[in-house]
Write a structure and sequence with these properties.
single chain; 514 residues; alpha+beta; PH-domain like; 7-stranded antiparallel sheet; 15 helices; 22 strands
Length: 514
Amino acid sequence: MSNYDFSQPTRQALAGLILFWFNGARVVVKNAWALFLVFFVNINNERFTSIQDYVYLVLAGLTLILMVHAWLFYRYFYFSIEQGELLIHKGYLKKVKLSIPFERIQNINIKQNLLQRFLQVVSIEVDTAGSSGKELKIIALKREQAVALKKELIELKEALLDTTGENENPSEIVLGASGKKTVQTNSDLVPVLHLDPVDLIKVGIAENHLKSSLLIVAVLIGFMQQLSEVFQERLEAMEEQAKLVLIGAGVQLILILVFVLLAAGFLFSLIRVFLSHYNLRMARNQRQYAISMGLFNKKEWTIPFRKIQVYEWKTNPLRDRMNFVTVYLHQAVSKEIHAQQTKIQVPGVSLNKRTQIEKSLFPELESSDYQEFRPNAIYFRRAWIIVGWIPAILLSLNYFAIQYWAAIPVVSWLLLSYVWSRLNYRKRLFRIGRDLVQDRSGAIGTSWQWMYLYKIQAVRLRRNIWERRRKLSTIFLYSASGEVLSIPYVDSAVAWRLYQWFLYRIETSEESWM
């Protein structure tokens, strides 16, 4: 029995005042960081001496305003559980009341960033697969209070579904020793996966370091563009000096810069993996997975099996050598939330652990017979034309008239794009079983996506200009997670029969996709 009475209006922990102030200050700095940078860089400049006192006065006034805002936000923010709904009241100038019926609650996640850890509080997010996604976020609760709120919401929701006969998964509610129905809790969980520092290093080594390097370049370019508005003259001078250095040094310096960039990408991948997946733990019981991870920003998810819309795993040559894959669990998502926010990534999953996960999510897996569909060869030709020939032609038009050696990168790109397109075509495969569909894709790496037939939300049949000439079609299967599985470039007659069959399965299925 919980020691907390959530039927009464409840405020957040007093430590939330610091979080509210910090969030307000972060918004101010995010929108005016360039002005702050100009002032502090030129703080000793004679032109700024006369206005320093006024700037400090503005900063003091801004700090005071943020403190008042934090207090008022804390004072007028409270939540309660009343008459089958989770209610939240907030706002002091504009008052807002949010109401979330129990049956709309999909997931309740607990998270903790570095500042929250220092203040010994956590945040709790209530997800709904409805109109506005994360409708409720409480950022300052004691952990035991957040756990008690989460447990009570789950129990009340399951009791409501059981009473109305809408609970499609009886295994979610079990009988206790007294015969009373209870919901399984984290105490029933059995460990599935735990990543130690050595495992995280392996995961970091197998990451896409080229992608990380390009991300660093994009961030630097964006940062320089923003700074150019403030320090335009200085940056232009630095740019001219950099050009002279590059021209004078030639190919050797360029190769060194590329090596440094790749090394920075490798280091960035390792750091990112450690920060995001530190002490990753995955456990399960008969109805759900519990996943926690993170060094500074700790996240905890509870994911019922029935709410996983698409199961996916990815690998690449390095992961194959180390005998592990990365698993993704895609949950239902609303239109206002990007699908990435509901995709839970679990790296470093060994082949044995992957098999255990698949058996728990798809118990019918071993008894299923599959019919396989592969794309027509035009799928490969189209990919090579788009990825290879079109960029090569554009590059030729720009450089052939000026520099004849441009043929070297053009030919190299055509060869690389041919290999990539060929691999992508050979790996493309779609399988249809009695209850499941499986979609394989990839070129260098490999991705498998699995979904129950009854979780398909919509079906679309497409014939583009490439397909019409060959009497081909592509079928798209849409899920509530935002993921789209496809059967590309198959015979139009076959595609039409499959389209009708998918619609029939969707309309006649009585199983709940949630």
